[in-house]
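hiii so um. not sure if this is the right channel but i have a protein structure encoded as tokens and i wanna go backwards to a sequence. like what aa goes where. can anyone help
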């Protein structure tokens, strides 16, 4: 009994080893402002929890440049070791994702994954490449590679030549540090490694690990939706035409709906790089539509408005790290939707304006401009036949029976006329 008590006391005195705390955050799909907020939230949680490392799991085709730079800035300035990891098998880290991968203190890939293809594209027919953008992104990639002691010349080819590497080749050529087919295997392989974190050496002790997976907060979810280029575009189109239609037909609530859509669209577009010329075309299209409503041109300005808005929408985004397929697919989607929406809404708005103009002429104004025939006239007064009906008339001119006259005004049952 005494021996058992002594053993228990010894167990209490011996400190128990706790596992390393690792905060995990997943980047899946296109990168936008919501993604950047999620990663930033994960870094803050890791700091609050005094985590031993941050694991960023990647499976992305690319995304917004501004959001990508925010994520990379968080990684490069982290006081906690960051492991970037392309996982699971079949995943890939292209364009913006490849820059995030190489920025980690430790970069890892699972077999069956790939990295690279970071050539910047801009909207066009087909999507095109600009040398100044290539040079900028290439120098940015090189600076990250040099900071993390990775092969800068090779990584630069991700941008300049659209180079893409499978996991095994990326590992053999020094782009990534580890090949691991599961997070647990990854932790086992890097256990005991020493990494440099902001000028100090940190040894990784991953004998046992506890992984805390971070989920996106509500704010990041909202940003993720609104800063999605497709969502922002749809809100913009709905906002523009619903607002104009609502102003033409007050009382239906369309102006309120249009205003809300437009505010949400501008909120989302604020995080996206836009083509200035495309924005000009959209504004010109709106101006031409308003001009058509004010000074009817039998639909000519309305047609030009539709063309301007459609072209502007197709070329709206100027995000070099979005996947190439995005610009092709978006051009088809935006072209079809904006053309259809603009055509339908322009037609409806013009028809509503036409009906409103006709309604204004009900009553006295309906007779103005009508042509009639003088039946009798003497001393400035007489009778005139208009639309098959006899009306009393007045005129300052000397008229006679049979003269054709035009109605220029009306007062009660008396028409004011002049010789045609």
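sure thing!! here u go:
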């Amino acid at each position: 009994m005494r021996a058992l008590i002594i053993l228990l006391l010894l167990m209490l005195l011996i400190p128990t080893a706790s596992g390393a705390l690792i905060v995990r955050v997943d980047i899946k799909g296109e990168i936008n402002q919501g993604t950047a907020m999620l990663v930033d939230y994960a870094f803050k949680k890791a700091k609050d929890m005094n985590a031993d490392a941050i694991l960023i799991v990647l499976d992305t085709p690319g995304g917004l440049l501004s959001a990508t730079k925010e994520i990379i800035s968080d990684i490069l300035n982290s006081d906690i070791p960051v492991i970037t990891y392309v996982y699971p098998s079949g995943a890939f880290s292209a364009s913006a994702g490849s820059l995030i991968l190489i920025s980690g203190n430790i970069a890892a890939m699972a077999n069956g994954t790939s990295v690279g293809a970071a050539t910047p594209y801009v909207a066009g027919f087909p999507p095109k490449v600009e040398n100044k953008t290539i040079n900028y992104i290439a120098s940015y990639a090189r600076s990250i590679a040099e900071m993390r002691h990775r092969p800068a010349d090779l990584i630069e080819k991700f941008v300049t030549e659209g180079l893409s590497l499978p996991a095994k080749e990326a590992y053999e050529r020094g782009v990534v540090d580890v090949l691991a087919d599961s997070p647990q295997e990854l932790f086992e392989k890097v256990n005991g490694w020493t990494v440099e974190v902001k000028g100090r050496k940190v040894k990784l002790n991953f004998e046992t690990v506890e992984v805390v997976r971070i989920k996106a907060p509500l704010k990041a979810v909202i940003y993720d939706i609104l800063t999605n280029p497709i969502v922002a575009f749809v809100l913009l189109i709905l906002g523009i035409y619903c607002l104009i239609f609502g102003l033409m037909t007050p009382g239906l609530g369309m102006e309120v709906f249009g205003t809300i859509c437009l505010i949400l669209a501008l909120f989302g577009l604020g995080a996206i790089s836009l083509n200035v010329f495309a924005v000009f075309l959209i504004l010109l299209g709106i101006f031409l539509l308003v001009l058509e409503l004010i000074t009817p041109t039998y639909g000519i300005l309305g047609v030009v408005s539709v063309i301007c808005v459609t072209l502007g929408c197709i070329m709206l985004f100027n995000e070099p790290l979005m996947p190439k397929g995005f610009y092709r697919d978006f051009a088809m989607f935006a072209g079809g939707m904006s053309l259809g929406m603009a055509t339908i809404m322009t037609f409806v708005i013009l028809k509503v304006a036409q009906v409103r103009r006709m309604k204004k002429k009900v009553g006295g104004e309906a007779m103005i401009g009508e042509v009639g025939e003088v039946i009798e006239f003497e001393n400035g007064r007489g009778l005139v036949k208009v639309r098959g009906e006899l009306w009393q008339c007045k005129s300052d001119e000397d008229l006679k029976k049979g003269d054709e006259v035009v109605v220029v005004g009306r007062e009660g049952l008396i028409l004011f006329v002049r010789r045609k």
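oh and Residues 283 and 311 are 12 Å apart (CA to CA).
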